[in-house]
Amino acid sequence: NGFVWISETQPRTARNNEISPPDQPAFNLFVTGETAAQVSITGPDAVRVIALGHFDDPRAAFCVTSPAEACRKSFVVDALLDPSDPDPGPTVNMAPAGDPVAPVARPEEVVAIATLGSHGWPTVLSIVAVRGDGISRVIGPNAEAPEVASARLIWVVRYLDGMEAWPTLQTRLLIDGPAADLPNWVYVVTRDGLRRQVTVVN
User: Which of 24, 70, 86, 123 is the most buried (most CB within 10 A)?
Assistant: First the structure.
């Protein structure tokens, strides 16, 4: 996790691999381990990106270096897209290294259920598979339900929903299991916590 700068025009090349604030108007982006990155930003030179994200992240409650209100003002990045190819296709990340958990469902099965009922053609940004006891690190402190926190594996699907001019970012949680069981364990992530979604598959 860490901050990077985004600005309207090309900034100076970094010296000694150190990133300094751009001269022109700019602000910080907060990139997390769950950010879907189509473009690498680890080099010393500036790169062009389309940054999709949000303010007021519920994980601000976990801030230890700054007041929670200051952390809520950070722009948390959900995806870094390449302006020359802004249709990334999903990025699939499995459980963290050293903590392998083999999923039962396949990513394509998870996406098919997670995006049911979407408006228009959904653009899936990322699919992250994490242990249930680590879900608050990804979603926030208000996004726990007993059956989610105790689950062996949770799929976190983030996608853009709605018409092209006004897309909205949606997050769905699915408890891993056989494809036939996935519709029974879909959760919508809201500001107030999790809401179980009734999914009907014809």
Answer: 123
